């Protein structure tokens, strides 16, 4: 649990630093694009690692041929990527709502 909290803290700090730096360099739209792009990539990687994008036959074959350690490792990485994506998507959504209100 402690490692997951560290992952969330580090990704939140990274997200805020990137968003503020992009805002000072250009404007809110650049911050929006960066946050949503990074969040989307991390979310897609999380789905790939979890097997959510596979067909039923492929999931069944992977389940029957992989070891318990492989499944645990794949689930762990999927969870960490999802935790890292959450702050980027949240900040991106907040910036989107702010930009929408300003226009």
From TrEMBL:
Could you list the residue ranges that cross the membrane? 7-25, 31-56, 77-99
Q: Does the keyword Transmembrane apply?
A: yes
Which InterPro entries does the protein's record reference? DUF5316
Q: Write down a Pfam family by its short name.
A: DUF5316
The alphabetical list of record keywords is: Membrane, Transmembrane, Transmembrane helix
Q: What is this protein called?
A: DUF5316 domain-containing protein
Q: Write down the species.
A: Paenibacillus albiflavus
Q: What is the lineage of its organism?
A: Bacteria, Bacillati, Bacillota, Bacilli, Bacillales
């Amino acid at each position: 649990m402690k490692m997951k909290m560290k992952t969330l803290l580090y990704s939140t700090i990274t997200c805020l630093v990137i968003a503020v730096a992009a805002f000072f360099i250009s404007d809110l739209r650049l911050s929006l694009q960066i946050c949503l792009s990074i969040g989307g990539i991390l979310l897609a990687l999380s789905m790939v690692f979890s097997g959510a994008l596979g067909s039923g036959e492929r999931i069944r074959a992977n389940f029957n041929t992989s070891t318990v350690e492989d499944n645990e490792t794949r689930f762990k990485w999927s969870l960490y990527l999802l935790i890292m994506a959450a702050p980027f998507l949240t900040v991106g959504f907040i910036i989107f709502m702010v930009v929408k209100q300003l226009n």
